[in-house]
């Protein structure tokens, strides 16, 4: 008689590839699916633990494909406290897109994998790559070819999961050279893009994912070449370029860009929820946000910079930003319709005001559906595409034999209403079962 660590009975499993739902029993051993059967059809077996999932919908644990652990040594503890927030929201994997707490993040990764710390599996870029005196603390500065080699050597030594490029001070030349070098080394990349290069140059240099839609919009504009030259000449800055690029949006240019992204298998991370949150900081009072009580005082203090920026900006700048936010919703739908693979990412973490770890991923999925995407299309952008992007799709991202048994059990069908992703019954991660009461207690324990 076969023995299993955990058997989940009578669950309605959702196949994210097709959207089909099947009533199945899932047999788990060593944290992996070893047998999947139609409910009630299995031979007799022994199980250390059995979970009756009758009435629930089972899908792979959610992935938040853009988060940050950062803020310096004084915020290490507050960042660590964010880990259970992800699990409580059914997020079993996060992609940490760069920060200055790499040694701590690496330690948490080990402890989570060993089962001694509650938290999601973390895939991290470690420190970002940027130019001299970059915006974010801990960034690796590159100017010369030698700098690029050293930076990538250090990331490979750290055994980071991908390379994140940032655009605050890096030159267009160093940026493209870095991408070409990562391509040679077989490293996965994602990043922002300096506006002194074109989107096609970036894609041709080998980028694997583009964070945020500013850069996509640039490649969809008929005036991209002229605006790029203006930025090279330092006649305008990033935010002055936005209205020009938006006004220059041309459907034929956009379709050619979408085809390029699709053919080169470049993923795009729209980050719609944070875009909306930051665009309306001047209008929305967040004092009574239910998730604010889970944030440490140090992290809340980091929110002030963006708040001040929003309140001190001109009427025109505020209006432009809101119009851009609306436009990005339309752009997201167009990208999806063209077959470009999207990644759901919250951009949550210190400095990103009122974009809370955990719940913000669900808000991102909602924002995607609001653009006109179907709930299934939105769900694919989390675990399914997330695993593909990091080349972990043989390991996770779907409910299949041999894959990691990280799953979330929902009390209502998310294919009917995307908000049902928040109706969490249980989360299974790393062979641990967290039931509804445990998840609730986890949250309560974090309240400040």
Automatic annotation (TrEMBL):
Residues 57-428 form the Amidohydrolase-related domain. It comes from the Bacteria. This is Amidohydrolase family protein. It comes from Sediminicola luteus. The lineage of its organism: Bacteria, Pseudomonadati, Bacteroidota, Flavobacteriia, Flavobacteriales.
């Amino acid at each position: 008689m076969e023995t299993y660590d955990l058997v989940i009975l009578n669950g309605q499993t959702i196949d994210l590839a097709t959207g089909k739902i099947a009533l199945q029993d899932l047999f788990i051993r060593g944290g992996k699916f070893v047998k999947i059967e139609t409910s009630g059809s299995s031979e007799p077996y022994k199980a250390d633990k059995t979970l009756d999932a009758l009435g629930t919908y089972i899908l792979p644990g959610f992935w938040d494909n853009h988060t940050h652990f950062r803020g310096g040594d004084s915020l290490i503890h507050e960042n660590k406290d964010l880990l259970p927030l992800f699990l409580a929201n059914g997020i079993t994997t996060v992609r940490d897109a760069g920060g200055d707490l790499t040694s701590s993040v690496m330690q948490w990764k080990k402890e989570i994998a060993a089962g001694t710390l509650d938290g999601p599996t973390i895939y991290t870029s470690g420190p970002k790559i940027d130019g001299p005196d970059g915006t974010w603390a801990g960034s690796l500065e590159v100017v010369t070819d030698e700098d690029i080699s050293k930076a990538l050597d250090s990331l490979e030594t750290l055994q980071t999961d991908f390379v994140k490029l940032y655009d605050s001070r890096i030159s267009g030349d160093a940026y493209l050279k870095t991408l070409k070098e990562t391509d040679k080394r077989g490293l996965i990349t994602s990043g922002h893009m300096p506006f002194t290069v074109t989107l096609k140059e970036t894609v041709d240099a080998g980028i694997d994912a583009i964070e945020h839609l500013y850069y996509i919009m640039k490649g969809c504009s008929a005036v991209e070449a002229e605006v790029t030259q203006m930025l090279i000449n330092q006649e305008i800055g990033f935010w002055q370029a936005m209205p020009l690029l938006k006004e220059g949006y041309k459907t034929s240019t956009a379709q050619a860009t979408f085809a390029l992204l699709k053919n080169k298998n470049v993923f795009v991370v729209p980050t719609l929820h944070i875009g909306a949150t930051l665009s309306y900081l001047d209008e929305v009072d967040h004092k009574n946000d239910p998730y604010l009580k889970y944030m440490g005082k140090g992290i809340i203090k980091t929110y002030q910079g963006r708040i001040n920026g929003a309140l001190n900006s001109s009427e025109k700048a505020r209006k432009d930003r809101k119009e851009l936010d609306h436009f990005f919703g339309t752009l997201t739908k167009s990208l999806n319709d063209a077959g470009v693979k999207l990644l759901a990412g919250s951009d949550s973490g210190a400095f990103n005001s009122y974009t809370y770890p955990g719940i913000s991923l669900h808000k991102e999925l909602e924002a995607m559906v609001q653009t006109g995407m179907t709930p299934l299309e939105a769900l694919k952008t989390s675990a399914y595409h997330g695993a593909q992007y990091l080349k972990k799709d043989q390991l996770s991202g779907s409910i299949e034999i041999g894959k990691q048994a990280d799953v979330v059990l929902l009390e209502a069908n998310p294919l009917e209403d995307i908000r049902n992703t928040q109706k969490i019954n249980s989360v299974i991660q790393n062979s641990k079962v967290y039931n509804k009461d445990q998840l609730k207690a986890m949250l309560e324990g974090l309240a400040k």
